[in-house]
Amino acid sequence: MKPGLYYNMSFEDYVKIDAVNNSTLKILSSQSPAHCKQYMTEGRPETKALSFGKAADCYILEPTLFAKQYVVGPDLNHNSKAWKEYKASVAEGVEILKQAEMDDIISIYNKISNSHGMRLLMGGKSQVVCIWEDKKTGLTCKSRWDYYNEDIPMITDLKTTISAEPEHFAKDIFKYGYYQQAAFYTDGYKAVMGDKYDCCFAFFTVEKVAPFVNSAFELGDKSLAAGRLAYRKALDLYKKCLDDCWPMYREQITLIEMPNWALSMAGVGEGNTF
Fold first, then answer.
1. Would the pLDDT of 271 be above 90?
2. Is residue 272, in this structure, part of any structural domain at all?
3. CA angle, residues 234, 39, 19, in degrees to nearest 5
4. What pLDDT is attached to residue 135?
5. How confident is the model at residue 272, as a pLDDT?
6. Residue 271 domain-assigned?
7. Which of 38, 97, 98, 214 fits a disulfide with 206 by CB distance 3.0 to 4.6 angstroms?
8. How many domains does the chain divide into?
C-alpha cells in the first residue's frame, strides 16, 4: 500500500498489510528474534486481560462494530451440552462475553463519558491506519491508532490498566514498552505528513475494576526520545533478521552469575575472596 493515512479500514484488512508494526518490534526489544519469528508465524496468544481490553476498546471507539462482533452469552456451565449448543449457534468470528464483563464495559464507558479526559476521544477519527517507509532501513511500517485528532494534532491510545495513578502508570510506560509505541506512531505521522509537522501522543487510561478511575496523560519528550532509541534498535535488528536468520538469545555458551543483590543475600558480597 502507498504511504498515507487510511480511515475506515477493518482490523482484518490491516493485519494483511505486509509491513512492520510495533507489536513485532516490541517482541524484538523485550525477547529475541526467535520469539519474534514465532509471533509473526503464529500470532499472539490471547489472554483474558487482552480479550477484555480489546472488547472495551471496541465498545468505546467503535460501538457499531461492537454490536456486530460481540454478544453476551447465557450463564451456563461451559462443560454443559446447553453451552456447547449455544456456542455452536453463534456466528463465526463473534466473541462471547460474560454478563459481568459486559456490565464492567458499560460501567467503564459511563464513567469516562463524563470525565475531563474524554475530550481526547472527541473531534477526530478512531482506528486510523498509518503506512510509511522508514528511510534508514527502507522497510515499510504500519500502525493503527486508537484515536487521531488532526486539528491538534494528537494520537491517543486507550489503555485499560491496573492503576491509573500517575506514578504507577509512569512505570507501566516503561514496563510494557508504551514509550516505544508512542515514538513509533508519532514518527510514522511525521514520515507521512513531513518532518516539520509534530504530533502529540496521549494515553487515556482506565482502571479495570470499579470505580473505574481514569486519567489522561501526554507523553513527554524525554520518554519519546527513549522510545525512538528502542524502536530504531529493534527495526535495525529486524532488517538484519530478514535473511531468515532469527536467533535465540545467544548461540554461544555464556558465563552467568546471579544478580549482585542475590549474591549479597547468599553471603557473597563485594570484598570477599575465594
1. no
2. no
3. 60
4. 95
5. 62
6. no
7. 214
8. 1
